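Quick log. Single chain, no ligands specified.
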Amino acid sequence: MKKKLAVLLVVAMSWGAASVATAQTEVQAETAKKVTKRVKAKAGDATMMPAPEVQLKRLAKGLQLTDEQQKQILPLLNDEYAKLKVIQGNEDLSPKQIQKQVEELRTGTIVKMQTYLTPEQKKKHDLVSNEIKANKQLRMKENRKARIGTKADPPAPVSN
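-> predicted structure:
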């Protein structure tokens, strides 16, 4: 009788532990969805990038693009912008997934765009892009410090 009671007790405890673990996973998933919705709600109608015409105007001025180059690059920027809107509107993606997809899309557009640039324009574009990335990293670092409330630097990236 004691063995049956002990087995029954072990089974009940195992079932209870499994249900608690499942409940925690569901709570974590629900919390992640709420955070994603909150981030998207705060973003509102804000765009991840300026309109294609604005980007082209900046590129034309900064790189001294010819009219022909502008005609070749504008469709790339329009395509990228349309894809960004789709990514931004996807409710199933987390902010990190959105960021990853945006970075991949942007990298692809830059590669395509550089096929229309002269070597001097490519150098200048790379220089400006690297400066923008450095500024972005600095802003992210400062935002992290402000959120955490500490002056500690974020953990160093793990190299493979």
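The chain has two domains: 1-32, 47-145.
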